[in-house]
Amino acid sequence: MIDFQNLGLQPALMSAVTKAGFSEPTPIQNQAIPLALKGHDILGLAQTGTGKTLAFGLPLINTLLDQPGKPLPKTVKALILAPTRELANQIAKNLKVLTSETRLKTHVVVGGQSMNKQMAVLSHGTDILVATPGRLIDLMDRGAVNLGSARYLVLDEADQMLDMGFIHSLRKIAPKLGTPRQTMLFSATMPKQMEELSRAYLTNPQKVQVSPPGKAADKVMQSLHFVEKADKPKKLRDVLNKDLDALTLVFMRTKHGAEKLKKGLVADGYRATSIHGNKSQSQRDRAILEFQQGICTILVATDVAARGIDIPGVACVINYDLPDVPDNYVHRIGRTARAGREGEAIAFCSAEELDLLKQIQKLMKTDIPVASGTAPKTALKRPQPQGRRGQRTNPPSGANQGKPGQRRNRSRRKPANAS
Fold first, then answer.
1. Mind listing the pLDDT tens digit for each residue in 240-271?
2. Which of 3, 45, 302, 362 is an S-S bond match for 276, by CB 3.0 to 4.6 Å?
3. In angstroms, what CA-CA distances link 143 with 112, 140, 244, 265?
Protein backbone atom coordinates (compact mmCIF):
# COMPACT_ATOMS: atom_id res chain seq x y z
CA MET A 1 0.00 0.00 0.00
CA ILE A 2 1.38 3.39 -1.05
CA ASP A 3 0.73 6.25 1.36
CA PHE A 4 -0.17 9.70 -0.03
CA GLN A 5 2.93 11.02 1.73
CA ASN A 6 5.14 8.73 -0.35
CA LEU A 7 3.79 9.75 -3.77
CA GLY A 8 6.04 12.78 -4.11
CA LEU A 9 3.13 15.20 -4.48
CA GLN A 10 3.69 18.96 -4.56
CA PRO A 11 3.65 20.44 -1.01
CA ALA A 12 0.57 22.60 -1.66
CA LEU A 13 -1.33 19.63 -3.05
CA MET A 14 -0.24 17.38 -0.20
CA SER A 15 -1.39 20.01 2.28
CA ALA A 16 -4.86 20.12 0.66
CA VAL A 17 -5.08 16.31 0.73
CA THR A 18 -4.25 16.27 4.44
CA LYS A 19 -6.72 19.05 5.29
CA ALA A 20 -9.46 17.24 3.35
CA GLY A 21 -8.99 14.23 5.60
CA PHE A 22 -7.56 11.80 3.04
CA SER A 23 -4.92 9.66 4.73
CA GLU A 24 -4.79 6.27 3.03
CA PRO A 25 -5.39 5.67 -0.71
CA THR A 26 -8.25 3.44 -1.81
CA PRO A 27 -7.34 0.43 -4.00
CA ILE A 28 -8.09 2.27 -7.27
CA GLN A 29 -6.06 5.27 -6.10
CA ASN A 30 -3.21 3.06 -4.93
CA GLN A 31 -2.87 1.47 -8.36
CA ALA A 32 -3.76 4.33 -10.71
CA ILE A 33 -1.97 7.33 -9.21
CA PRO A 34 1.65 6.08 -9.51
CA LEU A 35 1.05 5.02 -13.12
CA ALA A 36 -0.64 8.30 -14.01
CA LEU A 37 2.19 10.29 -12.41
CA LYS A 38 4.55 8.53 -14.83
CA GLY A 39 2.49 9.77 -17.76
CA HIS A 40 0.75 6.52 -18.75
CA ASP A 41 -2.72 6.46 -20.25
CA ILE A 42 -5.05 4.80 -17.75
CA LEU A 43 -8.01 2.46 -18.21
CA GLY A 44 -9.55 2.30 -14.74
CA LEU A 45 -12.32 -0.09 -13.75
CA ALA A 46 -13.78 0.28 -10.28
CA GLN A 47 -17.11 0.33 -8.49
CA THR A 48 -18.76 3.68 -7.86
CA GLY A 49 -17.85 5.25 -4.56
CA THR A 50 -14.26 3.95 -4.52
CA GLY A 51 -12.50 7.26 -4.97
CA LYS A 52 -11.99 7.59 -8.71
CA THR A 53 -11.95 11.39 -8.58
CA LEU A 54 -8.74 11.40 -6.56
CA ALA A 55 -7.36 8.60 -8.74
CA PHE A 56 -7.26 10.94 -11.74
CA GLY A 57 -7.41 14.28 -9.93
CA LEU A 58 -4.22 14.03 -7.87
CA PRO A 59 -1.84 13.10 -10.71
CA LEU A 60 -3.53 15.62 -13.02
CA ILE A 61 -3.14 18.49 -10.55
CA ASN A 62 0.39 17.49 -9.61
CA THR A 63 1.45 17.45 -13.27
CA LEU A 64 -0.13 20.83 -13.99
CA LEU A 65 1.67 22.35 -11.02
CA ASP A 66 4.96 21.38 -12.66
CA GLN A 67 4.07 23.46 -15.70
CA PRO A 68 4.82 27.20 -15.53
CA GLY A 69 2.57 29.94 -16.78
CA LYS A 70 -1.12 30.76 -16.74
CA PRO A 71 -3.55 29.53 -19.40
CA LEU A 72 -4.07 31.90 -22.30
CA PRO A 73 -7.53 33.42 -22.87
CA LYS A 74 -10.16 30.85 -23.90
CA THR A 75 -7.67 27.98 -23.56
CA VAL A 76 -7.78 24.89 -21.37
CA LYS A 77 -4.89 22.81 -20.06
CA ALA A 78 -6.89 19.75 -18.95
CA LEU A 79 -10.40 18.57 -19.83
CA ILE A 80 -12.60 16.26 -17.77
CA LEU A 81 -15.82 15.01 -19.36
CA ALA A 82 -18.72 13.62 -17.32
CA PRO A 83 -22.11 12.38 -18.56
CA THR A 84 -24.37 14.30 -16.13
CA ARG A 85 -24.55 17.76 -14.62
CA GLU A 86 -24.57 16.34 -11.10
CA LEU A 87 -21.41 14.32 -11.64
CA ALA A 88 -19.62 17.23 -13.34
CA ASN A 89 -20.47 19.54 -10.45
CA GLN A 90 -19.34 16.95 -7.91
CA ILE A 91 -16.00 16.43 -9.66
CA ALA A 92 -15.39 20.17 -9.86
CA LYS A 93 -16.25 20.58 -6.18
CA ASN A 94 -13.72 17.92 -5.19
CA LEU A 95 -10.99 19.30 -7.45
CA LYS A 96 -11.46 22.82 -6.07
CA VAL A 97 -10.76 21.41 -2.60
CA LEU A 98 -7.53 19.86 -3.88
CA THR A 99 -6.43 23.04 -5.68
CA SER A 100 -7.44 25.39 -2.86
CA GLU A 101 -3.82 26.13 -1.97
CA THR A 102 -2.48 26.30 -5.52
CA ARG A 103 -2.60 28.76 -8.41
CA LEU A 104 -4.70 26.39 -10.54
CA LYS A 105 -8.19 27.39 -11.65
CA THR A 106 -10.96 24.82 -12.00
CA HIS A 107 -14.22 25.66 -13.79
CA VAL A 108 -17.31 23.64 -14.68
CA VAL A 109 -19.66 24.09 -17.64
CA VAL A 110 -22.93 22.18 -17.79
CA GLY A 111 -26.35 22.64 -19.32
CA GLY A 112 -29.12 24.46 -17.53
CA GLN A 113 -26.93 27.43 -16.61
CA SER A 114 -26.23 30.79 -18.24
CA MET A 115 -24.24 30.37 -21.42
CA ASN A 116 -23.08 34.00 -21.29
CA LYS A 117 -21.67 33.63 -17.78
CA GLN A 118 -19.81 30.48 -18.80
CA MET A 119 -18.38 32.23 -21.84
CA ALA A 120 -17.21 35.10 -19.64
CA VAL A 121 -15.44 32.72 -17.27
CA LEU A 122 -13.77 30.79 -20.09
CA SER A 123 -12.58 34.01 -21.73
CA HIS A 124 -9.86 34.27 -19.07
CA GLY A 125 -8.63 30.71 -19.66
CA THR A 126 -8.73 27.82 -17.21
CA ASP A 127 -6.35 25.13 -16.04
CA ILE A 128 -8.93 22.39 -15.50
CA LEU A 129 -12.30 22.37 -17.22
CA VAL A 130 -15.00 19.92 -16.12
CA ALA A 131 -17.83 19.67 -18.62
CA THR A 132 -20.75 17.73 -19.95
CA PRO A 133 -20.29 16.96 -23.66
CA GLY A 134 -23.39 18.77 -24.93
CA ARG A 135 -22.68 22.10 -23.29
CA LEU A 136 -19.00 21.95 -24.21
CA ILE A 137 -19.85 21.54 -27.89
CA ASP A 138 -22.25 24.49 -27.67
CA LEU A 139 -19.41 26.62 -26.28
CA MET A 140 -16.97 25.34 -28.89
CA ASP A 141 -19.42 26.22 -31.68
CA ARG A 142 -19.58 29.77 -30.31
CA GLY A 143 -15.80 30.11 -30.24
CA ALA A 144 -15.83 30.48 -26.45
CA VAL A 145 -13.19 27.83 -25.78
CA ASN A 146 -10.13 26.49 -27.59
CA LEU A 147 -9.03 22.98 -26.67
CA GLY A 148 -5.82 23.00 -28.71
CA SER A 149 -3.69 23.54 -25.60
CA ALA A 150 -5.31 20.69 -23.65
CA ARG A 151 -2.82 17.87 -23.15
CA TYR A 152 -4.85 15.91 -20.63
CA LEU A 153 -8.23 14.26 -21.11
CA VAL A 154 -10.28 12.38 -18.51
CA LEU A 155 -13.45 10.48 -19.37
CA ASP A 156 -15.28 9.73 -16.13
CA GLU A 157 -18.13 7.21 -16.06
CA ALA A 158 -17.42 6.61 -19.73
CA ASP A 159 -19.85 3.70 -19.97
CA GLN A 160 -22.75 5.99 -19.15
CA MET A 161 -21.57 8.39 -21.83
CA LEU A 162 -22.05 5.53 -24.26
CA ASP A 163 -25.46 4.66 -22.79
CA MET A 164 -26.56 8.30 -23.15
CA GLY A 165 -25.42 8.54 -26.76
CA PHE A 166 -22.43 10.81 -26.19
CA ILE A 167 -20.14 8.82 -28.48
CA HIS A 168 -20.88 11.26 -31.32
CA SER A 169 -20.00 14.19 -29.04
CA LEU A 170 -16.71 12.55 -28.10
CA ARG A 171 -15.85 12.20 -31.77
CA LYS A 172 -16.32 15.96 -32.17
CA ILE A 173 -14.42 16.94 -29.03
CA ALA A 174 -11.39 14.63 -28.98
CA PRO A 175 -9.82 15.75 -32.30
CA LYS A 176 -9.83 19.36 -31.04
CA LEU A 177 -7.47 18.53 -28.16
CA GLY A 178 -3.73 18.93 -28.45
CA THR A 179 -1.31 16.06 -29.03
CA PRO A 180 0.49 14.24 -27.65
CA ARG A 181 -1.78 13.97 -24.63
CA GLN A 182 -2.41 11.78 -21.64
CA THR A 183 -5.85 10.22 -21.48
CA MET A 184 -7.49 8.54 -18.50
CA LEU A 185 -10.74 6.64 -18.88
CA PHE A 186 -12.67 5.48 -15.81
CA SER A 187 -15.74 3.28 -15.67
CA ALA A 188 -17.60 0.96 -13.33
CA THR A 189 -18.47 -1.50 -16.09
CA MET A 190 -16.74 -2.73 -19.24
CA PRO A 191 -19.22 -3.40 -22.05
CA LYS A 192 -17.87 -4.38 -25.46
CA GLN A 193 -18.33 -0.86 -26.82
CA MET A 194 -16.12 0.42 -23.99
CA GLU A 195 -13.24 -1.69 -25.29
CA GLU A 196 -13.66 -0.06 -28.70
CA LEU A 197 -13.71 3.36 -27.05
CA SER A 198 -10.49 2.66 -25.16
CA ARG A 199 -8.73 1.54 -28.34
CA ALA A 200 -9.83 4.74 -30.09
CA TYR A 201 -8.73 7.21 -27.42
CA LEU A 202 -6.01 5.54 -25.32
CA THR A 203 -2.43 4.81 -26.30
CA ASN A 204 -0.84 1.72 -24.72
CA PRO A 205 -2.97 2.16 -21.60
CA GLN A 206 -2.22 0.65 -18.21
CA LYS A 207 -5.33 -1.25 -17.12
CA VAL A 208 -6.26 -0.83 -13.46
CA GLN A 209 -9.08 -3.00 -12.18
CA VAL A 210 -9.95 -3.38 -8.52
CA SER A 211 -13.20 -5.31 -8.93
CA PRO A 212 -14.85 -7.39 -11.68
CA PRO A 213 -17.11 -5.33 -13.96
CA GLY A 214 -20.72 -5.55 -12.80
CA LYS A 215 -19.80 -6.34 -9.21
CA ALA A 216 -21.58 -4.39 -6.50
CA ALA A 217 -19.71 -2.81 -3.62
CA ASP A 218 -18.82 -5.35 -0.94
CA LYS A 219 -20.54 -3.48 1.88
CA VAL A 220 -23.92 -3.20 0.17
CA MET A 221 -26.49 -5.57 1.68
CA GLN A 222 -28.83 -6.45 -1.18
CA SER A 223 -32.35 -7.85 -0.95
CA LEU A 224 -35.16 -8.59 -3.40
CA HIS A 225 -38.91 -8.37 -2.95
CA PHE A 226 -41.22 -9.99 -5.49
CA VAL A 227 -44.29 -7.76 -5.49
CA GLU A 228 -47.17 -7.07 -7.83
CA LYS A 229 -46.93 -3.78 -9.66
CA ALA A 230 -50.06 -2.41 -7.97
CA ASP A 231 -48.68 -3.31 -4.53
CA LYS A 232 -45.39 -1.46 -4.91
CA PRO A 233 -46.63 1.82 -3.29
CA LYS A 234 -47.63 0.04 -0.08
CA LYS A 235 -44.44 -2.03 -0.05
CA LEU A 236 -42.37 1.13 -0.41
CA ARG A 237 -44.08 2.72 2.57
CA ASP A 238 -43.55 -0.42 4.63
CA VAL A 239 -39.83 -0.15 3.94
CA LEU A 240 -39.63 3.60 4.53
CA ASN A 241 -41.50 3.36 7.82
CA LYS A 242 -38.72 1.27 9.34
CA ASP A 243 -36.44 4.30 9.58
CA LEU A 244 -37.73 7.80 8.94
CA ASP A 245 -34.36 9.45 9.44
CA ALA A 246 -32.33 7.33 7.02
CA LEU A 247 -31.33 9.05 3.78
CA THR A 248 -33.03 6.92 1.13
CA LEU A 249 -32.75 7.06 -2.66
CA VAL A 250 -35.72 5.67 -4.61
CA PHE A 251 -35.08 4.98 -8.29
CA MET A 252 -37.79 5.10 -10.93
CA ARG A 253 -37.67 4.33 -14.64
CA THR A 254 -39.42 7.46 -15.96
CA LYS A 255 -39.56 11.17 -15.18
CA HIS A 256 -43.35 11.10 -14.94
CA GLY A 257 -43.28 8.14 -12.57
CA ALA A 258 -40.68 9.77 -10.33
CA GLU A 259 -42.65 13.00 -9.95
CA LYS A 260 -45.91 11.16 -9.37
CA LEU A 261 -44.39 8.98 -6.68
CA LYS A 262 -42.76 11.96 -4.96
CA LYS A 263 -46.06 13.86 -4.82
CA GLY A 264 -47.78 10.80 -3.34
CA LEU A 265 -45.12 10.48 -0.66
CA VAL A 266 -45.33 14.18 0.22
CA ALA A 267 -49.13 13.92 0.44
CA ASP A 268 -48.68 11.09 2.93
CA GLY A 269 -46.42 13.15 5.13
CA TYR A 270 -42.99 11.92 4.05
CA ARG A 271 -40.13 14.39 3.61
CA ALA A 272 -39.51 13.66 -0.06
CA THR A 273 -38.12 15.49 -3.06
CA SER A 274 -37.28 14.47 -6.62
CA ILE A 275 -34.70 14.86 -9.35
CA HIS A 276 -35.15 14.02 -13.03
CA GLY A 277 -34.72 15.41 -16.51
CA ASN A 278 -37.79 17.66 -16.38
CA LYS A 279 -36.32 19.63 -13.47
CA SER A 280 -34.33 22.80 -14.07
CA GLN A 281 -30.71 22.87 -12.93
CA SER A 282 -31.57 25.08 -9.95
CA GLN A 283 -34.35 22.67 -8.92
CA ARG A 284 -32.00 19.72 -9.21
CA ASP A 285 -29.29 21.46 -7.18
CA ARG A 286 -31.81 22.42 -4.49
CA ALA A 287 -33.17 18.87 -4.27
CA ILE A 288 -29.69 17.40 -3.79
CA LEU A 289 -28.81 20.02 -1.19
CA GLU A 290 -32.02 19.38 0.79
CA PHE A 291 -31.33 15.65 0.64
CA GLN A 292 -27.71 16.05 1.67
CA GLN A 293 -28.67 18.24 4.62
CA GLY A 294 -31.44 15.88 5.74
CA ILE A 295 -34.21 18.43 5.15
CA CYS A 296 -35.71 15.78 2.88
CA THR A 297 -34.80 12.20 3.76
CA ILE A 298 -36.20 10.64 0.58
CA LEU A 299 -34.95 11.47 -2.91
CA VAL A 300 -36.94 9.99 -5.80
CA ALA A 301 -34.77 9.92 -8.91
CA THR A 302 -34.38 8.62 -12.42
CA ASP A 303 -31.02 7.39 -13.69
CA VAL A 304 -29.96 10.99 -14.31
CA ALA A 305 -28.82 10.87 -10.67
CA ALA A 306 -27.37 7.37 -10.61
CA ARG A 307 -23.81 8.59 -11.04
CA GLY A 308 -23.97 12.20 -9.97
CA ILE A 309 -24.79 11.85 -6.28
CA ASP A 310 -21.82 11.46 -3.99
CA ILE A 311 -23.33 11.65 -0.52
CA PRO A 312 -21.68 9.25 1.93
CA GLY A 313 -24.71 9.46 4.25
CA VAL A 314 -27.07 7.59 1.89
CA ALA A 315 -28.16 4.60 3.96
CA CYS A 316 -30.50 2.85 1.52
CA VAL A 317 -31.18 2.63 -2.21
CA ILE A 318 -34.55 1.29 -3.34
CA ASN A 319 -35.04 0.12 -6.92
CA TYR A 320 -38.77 0.79 -7.13
CA ASP A 321 -38.51 0.07 -10.86
CA LEU A 322 -35.74 -2.17 -12.14
CA PRO A 323 -33.63 -0.38 -14.78
CA ASP A 324 -33.85 -1.21 -18.46
CA VAL A 325 -30.04 -1.34 -18.65
CA PRO A 326 -28.55 -3.96 -16.27
CA ASP A 327 -25.39 -1.91 -15.68
CA ASN A 328 -27.51 0.85 -14.21
CA TYR A 329 -28.49 -1.40 -11.31
CA VAL A 330 -24.84 -1.49 -10.22
CA HIS A 331 -24.55 2.28 -10.56
CA ARG A 332 -27.76 2.88 -8.64
CA ILE A 333 -26.84 0.80 -5.63
CA GLY A 334 -23.37 2.33 -5.75
CA ARG A 335 -24.94 5.48 -4.29
CA THR A 336 -24.83 3.77 -0.88
CA ALA A 337 -21.94 2.14 1.01
CA ARG A 338 -19.63 4.92 -0.13
CA ALA A 339 -16.28 5.88 1.38
CA GLY A 340 -16.02 2.59 3.28
CA ARG A 341 -19.47 2.74 4.87
CA GLU A 342 -22.14 0.06 4.90
CA GLY A 343 -25.41 0.40 3.01
CA GLU A 344 -28.58 -1.36 1.98
CA ALA A 345 -30.00 -1.92 -1.50
CA ILE A 346 -33.59 -3.10 -1.90
CA ALA A 347 -35.15 -4.09 -5.22
CA PHE A 348 -38.82 -4.54 -6.09
CA CYS A 349 -39.60 -6.92 -8.95
CA SER A 350 -42.99 -7.41 -10.56
CA ALA A 351 -43.88 -10.10 -13.09
CA GLU A 352 -43.32 -7.59 -15.89
CA GLU A 353 -39.74 -7.06 -14.72
CA LEU A 354 -38.67 -10.67 -14.35
CA ASP A 355 -36.58 -10.58 -17.54
CA LEU A 356 -34.85 -7.41 -16.34
CA LEU A 357 -34.01 -9.13 -13.05
CA LYS A 358 -32.49 -12.09 -14.89
CA GLN A 359 -30.28 -9.74 -16.93
CA ILE A 360 -29.11 -7.94 -13.78
CA GLN A 361 -28.24 -11.19 -12.00
CA LYS A 362 -26.48 -12.48 -15.09
CA LEU A 363 -24.34 -9.34 -15.18
CA MET A 364 -23.44 -9.61 -11.49
CA LYS A 365 -22.96 -13.40 -11.74
CA THR A 366 -24.97 -13.84 -8.55
CA ASP A 367 -28.58 -13.97 -7.39
CA ILE A 368 -29.97 -11.19 -5.22
CA PRO A 369 -31.21 -12.70 -1.91
CA VAL A 370 -35.03 -12.88 -1.82
CA ALA A 371 -36.53 -11.18 1.23
CA SER A 372 -40.22 -11.63 0.44
CA GLY A 373 -42.59 -12.88 -2.20
CA THR A 374 -42.27 -15.65 -4.76
CA ALA A 375 -40.86 -15.36 -8.24
CA PRO A 376 -43.51 -15.73 -10.96
CA LYS A 377 -43.03 -18.75 -13.17
CA THR A 378 -43.18 -16.68 -16.33
CA ALA A 379 -42.63 -13.04 -17.06
CA LEU A 380 -45.58 -10.92 -18.12
CA LYS A 381 -45.22 -8.84 -21.25
CA ARG A 382 -44.24 -5.30 -20.33
CA PRO A 383 -46.64 -2.60 -21.57
CA GLN A 384 -45.63 -0.71 -24.68
CA PRO A 385 -44.98 3.05 -24.48
CA GLN A 386 -48.18 5.08 -24.36
CA GLY A 387 -49.06 8.59 -25.48
CA ARG A 388 -47.27 11.16 -27.56
CA ARG A 389 -44.14 11.19 -25.44
CA GLY A 390 -43.82 7.43 -25.40
CA GLN A 391 -43.82 7.21 -21.61
CA ARG A 392 -44.73 3.94 -20.00
CA THR A 393 -47.64 3.62 -17.64
CA ASN A 394 -46.34 3.96 -14.09
CA PRO A 395 -47.54 2.36 -10.85
CA PRO A 396 -49.97 4.45 -8.80
CA SER A 397 -48.28 6.74 -6.33
CA GLY A 398 -50.28 5.32 -3.47
CA ALA A 399 -51.37 8.65 -2.07
CA ASN A 400 -53.16 8.64 1.28
CA GLN A 401 -52.09 5.16 2.23
CA GLY A 402 -51.47 6.13 5.83
CA LYS A 403 -49.07 8.37 7.69
CA PRO A 404 -45.53 7.30 8.48
CA GLY A 405 -45.32 5.08 11.52
CA GLN A 406 -42.69 4.27 14.09
CA ARG A 407 -39.39 3.12 12.61
CA ARG A 408 -36.45 1.28 14.01
CA ASN A 409 -33.53 3.33 15.27
CA ARG A 410 -30.74 3.60 12.72
CA SER A 411 -27.90 5.99 13.40
CA ARG A 412 -27.48 8.81 10.94
CA ARG A 413 -24.26 8.70 8.97
CA LYS A 414 -22.42 11.99 8.80
CA PRO A 415 -21.40 13.02 5.29
CA ALA A 416 -17.64 12.96 4.73
CA ASN A 417 -15.47 14.51 2.10
CA ALA A 418 -16.11 12.77 -1.19
CA SER A 419 -13.28 11.37 -3.22
1. 999 999 999 999 999 999 999 999 999 999 99
2. 302
3. 19, 5, 50, 46
